[in-house]
Amino acid sequence: MEGISVLGLVFAFLALIITEFACNGEIHSGNCLQSDREALIDFKSGLKFSKDRFSSWRRNDCCQWQGIRCENSTGAVIMIDLHNAEGNTHRNLGSMNLGGNIRPSLKKLMSLRYLDLSFNSFEDIPIPKFLGSLKNLKYLNLSHAGFSGVIPPNLGNLSNLQYLDLSSSYGGLSVDNFEWVANLVSLKHLQMNNVDLSMIGSQWVEVLNKLPFITELHLPGCDLFDLDPFIRSVNFTSLAILNIPENNFNSTFPGWLVNISSLITIDISSSNLAGRIPLGVAELPNLQYLDLSWNQNLSGNCLHLLRGSWKRIEILNLASNILDGTIPNSIGNLCNLRYLNVEGNNLTGSLPGSLQEIRNCSSERFLPNLKNLMLSGNHLTGNFPEWLGQLENLEELILSYNEIQGPLPDSLGRLSQLVELRLDHNKLEGSIPVSLGNLYHLKEMRLEENNLNGSLPDSFGKLSQLVTLDVSFNGLKGTLSEKHFSEQSKLKESYLDANSFILNVSSNWTPPFQIFELGMSSCNLGNPFPFWLQSQKEVQYLDFSNASISGSLPNWFWNISFNMWVLNISFNHMQGQLPSFLNVMGFGSIDLSYNQFEGPIPLPNPVVASVDVFDLSNNKFSGSIPLNIGDSISAILFLSFG
Questions:
Q1: Which of 182-186, 596-600, 603-607 has the lowest mean pLDDT?
Q2: Structure confidence at residue 635 as a pLDDT band (50, 70, 90)
Q3: Is residue 239 a contact partner of residue 215, using CB atoms and an 8 Å limit?
């Protein structure tokens, strides 16, 4: 999901601290203090590292060492930045990784203000308690560095600390008492991603309310289970970013948030919140990012919520809750909106037939910045509105699983930036507009399970970026020619099932794509078995059932079948014998029923694996069931030879 760059704000904060050092003339280019040099050498002796990691530390002047900065006037070390630039949260550690132990000689660096050991691997050692004695520290980043155990509460002695990141990639760190955080009176940025805070109850809200300068709070995935919905007096009035998703609050929405006008980002998604979303959230003057998705039980009237001011809102995600009501025509005035997701709620009524006259926007177009519109899984009705085809910057349009009806407007073909179009499982009628062939950036088009009729436009052949096409289960008909696929070199999934298409291609046609999944059931593929399939070496799913195919299955087919986990050629007129062992992917499905195959009963190749479904019924096989059948179908869920 595209969002406000929290990382950008972090970098800006770091730049502010480093610039503060530089502007005060404190970054040193002369000789460092001998005592600090000795402390650094001893600190290094406890570390594990690759041979080139500390190559610059052979010089006499430690102020010239990589990762070290000194104060100009005294030569005292004020910065240690040994973060692993090659590391990440998935523990791809690279050649810059550090391990080993952190020796207490580090506490001799009494002028140290900046310490960054992030993205290293200290192999589950505890965070050293002596770090709490570095009272001049302003910046401390030990994130994703392999520490474990209880975070030492004496870090609360760092009263000058402005930035603290103790995030963990895979857990391992915990806090059993949060009171020490209240002593970090200078703190502006607190980040503890995936740290276990389950022992602190609702205490964390009260503690953080004692930090008047806090601007960023990141506590995602911390097993917090209580969010105090009531605070009499809100003191953290500088809070700009509240990032606390993936917890288990089991609380109502914290109404006190509407009193923090400085908020730019609120993310409390997937956190088991309930109750009504206060309308005051829409009036927060600086709010740009709001994600309350996947709480399941947050309620509110969409008509009233979206009629709010939302002066600066860019990202609005309310998906998977129990919102009701309709979508107001005033949404056209959300000038800055880039992402709107209200999927999986209980919205009713039709989409606005037209949008309200634009007010207070520099652009004369509706929703000029909207890139993602996601309204699937509701109960929306009515016709497909014309104004959707005027959202020129739209990249993602998802309206699936509703009850929208009527024809698709030609104006959809003007959405030149569209990458993903999902209109499946509605009640759309009429023909597919030829103009959709102009969507040259389109990667995914899903129109399945509607009431569309007419033919598939051959203009679709120009969709050179298309990866997924699904028009199955409609009333489409007509001929599919090579022109329909001419430039679809990236196509990987194509579902044309349950229509009445007739495939008419030359006998030597080679498709421009390498397909993964191909569904053409109920299409007329003609005789003999499609030779062009021989060029497809990556097929995993093949459904040619009820496709009017006759003749034998060619030998070359079993050279391309070994990746298939679904093979369905049932309800055809195929004849001849099959090989003794069928080369298909294990734990899949083979359906060869309702044909005229004959000869001995074949089995899935036991060297590959067993299959879940094996249906050979209604053929002309003869002879006894093979004695070694158990080797091929040991995990069978469905078996039929009848």
A1: 603-607
A2: low
A3: yes
Tell me, rounded to whole angstroms, the distance of Cα 491 from its chain centroid.
22
Backbone angles phi, psi at 105, to 5 degrees: -60, -20
Q: What is the pLDDT of residue 638?
A: 56
Read out DSSP for 20-83?
Answer: HHHHTT-S--SPPPHHHHHHHHHHHHTEE--TTTTGGGGSS-GGGSTTEEE-TTT--EEEEE--
Other CB atoms closer than 10 Å to residue 552's CB: what's the count? 15
Asked whether the predicted pLDDT for residue 96 surpasses 90, the reply is: no
How would you classify residue 536: left for phi > 0, otherwise alpha for psi between -120 and 50, otherwise beta?
beta
Bridge partner list, 422: 398, 446
Q: Please confirm whether the linkage preceding 528 is cis (ω < 30° from 0).
A: yes
pLDDT digit string, tens, across residues 63-77: 999 999 999 989 999
Most confident range (mean pLDDT) of 24-38, 363-377, 537-551, 580-594 is 537-551
- Is 60 exceeded by the pLDDT of residue 290? yes
Q: Which residue has the tokens 């104006």?
A: 411
pTM over 0.70: yes
* Model confidence at 1: pLDDT above 50: no
Chain CA centroid to CA 184, Å: 34
Average pLDDT over residues 515-529: 95
Q: Which residues contact 636 (CB under 8 A, 6 or more apart)?
A: 610, 611, 612, 613, 614
Cβ count near 20 (within 10 Å): 13
The CA-atom distances, in angstroms, between 511 and each of 478, 487, 508 are 19, 9, 10
Give the three-class secondary structure for 174: strand
Q: Which residues, 6+ apart, have CB-to-CB distance to 627 below 8 Å?
A: none
Alpha-carbon gap, residue 472 to 493, rounded angstroms: 12
Tell me the mean pLDDT in the region 356-384: 88
DSSP state of 147: -
Identify which of 59, 52, 21 has the alpha carbon closest to the alpha carbon of residue 37.
59
Dihedral sign from CA coordinates of 627, 628, 629, 635: positive
Of 477, 416, 468, the closest CA to residue 443 belongs to 468
- Across 265-292, b (16+ Cβ under 10 Å) vs e yields bbbbbbbbbbbebbeebbebeebbbbbb
Asked if residues 471 and 522 have their Cβ atoms less than 8 Å apart, the reply is: no
Element (H, E) at 444: strand 444-446
Q: Residue 200: CA atoms inside 13 Å, Cβ hemisphere, count?
A: 24
15 contacts: CB under 8 Å, gap ≥ 6: none
- At residue 641 the predicted structure's pLDDT band, cuts being 50, 70 and 90, is low
Would you put residue 551 in left (φ > 0), alpha (ψ -120 to 50) or beta?
left
Count Cβ atoms below 10 Å from residue 85 Cβ, excluding itself. 10
Indicate the SS3 state at residue 430. Answer: strand
Q: How far apart are CA 315 and CA 143, in angstroms?
A: 27
Q: What is the pLDDT of residue 25?
A: 39
Which helix (H) or strand (E) segment is 506 a member of?
none
Which residue matches tokens 């097929």? 539
Helix (H, G, I), strand (E, B) or coil at 85: coil
Say what the pLDDT of residue 93 is.
Answer: 65
Q: Which two tokens stand for residue 374?
A: 């996601």
Place of tokens 């430039």: 487
Pairwise CA distance, residues 271 & 293, whole Å: 9
